[in-house]
Design a protein that fits this description.
The structure is a single chain. By secondary structure, the chain is α+β, with helices and mostly antiparallel strands. About 60% of the residues lie in helices and about 20% in strands. The chain contains four helices and four strands. Strands 1-2-4-3 form a four-stranded antiparallel beta sheet, with helices on one face.
C-alpha cells in the first residue's frame, strides 16, 4: 500500500528550525546575562580599587608638591644666607685691599715709571702716569699680569707721547699712559698663592742630603 503524506511537512520543519533557533538564542542570551552578571561585580571591584589607588597617589603627590615648595623655599633662604656670608667675607677681606694695592704696585713698578693718578671703582683700578719709554710701560703691564696674584687682566687704555721739563730747563720726551687693571680679592689671591707654595715644597724635599763620613780607627 502506498502512503501519501498530505501534511505541510516543509512548514513544520521550518517551524521546528525556528523554534530551535529561538531556543538557542534564548539560551545564549541567558548565558551571556549570567556571564555579564558574574563579570560586572569583578570589574566594579577592580575599578573601585583603582580609584582608591588614584586617590592615594593624588594625596601623596599633593603632599610631595608641598614638600618640594618647602625645599625650594629653604634652598632660596640658604642661597641668600650664603650670599650674605660671602658679602661679609668680601667686606672683611677688602679692608686690606688698599694696603695690598699700594704695596704690590710699588713692588711691580719698573724704574723710570711714575704714577700721577690712581682711581679705584669696586675692583677696577685705573692708573695714570708717565714713563721714560714705551718699553717701561710694557714692562709694567707684564709685571701686573704675571708677577703678582693681586692684579689681573691689565689693559693699556692709551699711551701718548709727551715732554717733561727737567729742573735744568731741559725737555725730555716721555710716554703718558693710562692702564686699567682688576684688583683681586684676598680670598682669590690666597688661592692663587697656595699652589705656588705647594709646588716649591716638594722641590725642597727632593734636595739630596749630604752625609758625612768619618775614618774608622783600627
Amino acid at each position: 500500500m502506498i502512503l501519501i503524506n498530505l501534511l505541510p511537512h516543509r512548514e513544520a520543519a521550518r517551524k521546528h528550525r525556528r523554534d530551535v533557533f529561538n531556543l538557542s538564542l534564548g539560551m545564549s542570551a541567558l548565558l551571556g546575562g549570567l556571564i555579564a552578571g558574574a563579570v560586572f561585580p569583578w570589574y566594579g571591584s577592580e575599578i573601585s580599587a583603582q580609584q582608591n589607588s588614584n586617590s592615594i597617589l593624588t594625596a601623596e603627590i599633593t603632599k610631595l608638591e608641598g614638600q618640594i615648595k618647602d625645599i625650594a623655599g629653604l634652598e632660596t633662604e640658604i642661597a641668600a644666607l650664603k650670599a650674605r656670608q660671602q658679602a661679609v667675607e668680601d667686606l672683611q677681606s677688602d679692608r686690606n685691599l688698599p694696603v695690598h694695592l699700594l704695596t704690590e704696585l710699588v713692588q711691580q713698578l719698573p724704574d723710570g715709571v711714575f704714577i700721577a693718578k690712581m682711581v679705584q671703582v669696586d675692583q677696577s683700578v685705573t692708573i695714570s702716569g708717565t714713563a721714560q719709554s714705551n718699553e717701561r710701560v710694557s714692562e709694567l703691564l707684564r709685571n701686573l699680569g704675571n708677577n703678582t696674584p693681586w692684579f689681573a687682566k691689565p689693559e693699556l687704555v692709551e699711551i701718548v707721547a709727551g715732554t717733561l721739563t727737567l729742573p735744568t730747563k731741559e725737555q725730555k720726551r716721555v710716554s703718558n699712559f693710562v692702564i686699567k687693571v682688576r684688583l683681586v680679592r684676598a680670598t682669590e689671591a690666597e688661592k692663587a698663592v697656595l699652589p705656588t707654595a705647594g709646588a716649591s715644597a716638594p722641590a725642597a724635599a727632593t734636595a739630596p742630603a749630604k752625609t758625612a763620613s768619618s775614618p774608622v780607627k783600627q
